[in-house]
Design a protein that fits this description.
Elements lengths: L2 H18 L5 H10 L4 H26 L4 H20 L4 H31 L7 H18 L4 H11 L4 H26 L7 H20 L4 H21 L1
Helix pairs in contact: 1-2, 1-9, 2-3, 2-5, 2-10, 3-8, 3-9, 4-6, 4-8, 5-7, 5-10, 6-8, 7-8
Length: 247
């Protein structure tokens, strides 16, 4: 089976698995395209486009469920969106990009494990208002990283929210998915302004991710074993990060 067929299948699978746990799959797309040997510029453009697609699909579900509250996500967007645009316009050298991505993948794997371990405690805690000024700073940092790497800010923001105990698992997932959308779109514009690299396969990849995102969002709403899925994704991210780090 050729890579032209294998890769869309893998992208659809990644989109479905991440959508099940309230994410858009940016780190997964970066990982698999890195393993297939694509250039940093191609990975960044494609991962942002795929993340944008799946996050938009996920947000529809959160909007319908009433979990998407403007007060929860807009403080992160105020600085996160413009800084993701700046990050999209910046290009890391190939080796530096691989190193940063490897660190982020391993970090995302650890975050998923920790998130699974602490999910029950967060569900039992009282709902709090997310503090505005810390949210501004957190949004700025995660937005810049999202633009630099081509990974939506959701996975980093989820890690911060869970670590700071700012919300339940479902609330965090809704905010993270919103952040994927408001950082991926400006970052993609930034890439287009600075160094546009549009692989000819991109429309097919976007279609595959959209199908996976729809299936994953539907399955996630049907209460799949989310804890087990997070642990599987953590292992995949960890293995991918190590492989990319070792070349």
């Amino acid at each position: 089976m050729s890579s032209d067929l294998i890769l869309p299948i893998l992208l659809a699978l990644i989109a479905a698995l991440f959508a099940c746990v309230g994410q858009a799959g940016g780190v997964g797309y970066v990982a698999v395209m890195g393993l297939f040997g694509f250039s940093a510029a191609t990975i960044k453009t494609a991962a942002l486009a795929l993340t944008l697609t799946v996050s938009a699909i996920g947000l529809v579900r959160y909007q319908h469920s009433g979990l998407l509250r403007t007060r929860d996500w807009y403080p992160f967007a105020l600085l996160g969106a413009p800084l993701s645009l700046v990050g999209g316009m910046l290009t890391l050298p190939g080796q530096a990009y691989r190193f940063v991505v490897a660190i982020l993948l391993i970090g995302a794997a650890i975050q998923m494990v920790l998130r699974t371990m602490h999910a029950a405690a967060l569900e039992d805690g009282p709902a709090k208002e997310i503090p505005f000024r810390p949210a501004l700073i957190t949004g700025a940092i995660t937005g810049l990283i999202a633009g630099l790497t081509g990974v939506g800010a959701g996975v980093f923001l989820a890690a911060a929210l869970m670590s700071l105990k700012w919300g339940s698992t479902r609330r965090v997932a809704a905010v993270a998915q919103a952040s994927n959308l408001f950082t991926s779109f400006p970052a993609l514009i930034g890439v287009g302004l600075a160094n546009p690299v549009l692989p000819p396969q991109l429309p097919g990849w976007v279609l595959a991710a959209a199908v996976g995102g729809i299936i994953g969002s539907w399955l996630g709403a049907r209460h799949l074993p989310v804890m087990a899925l997070r642990l599987i994704l953590a292992l995949v991210l960890l293995a991918s990060g190590i492989k990319i780090a070792l070349g």
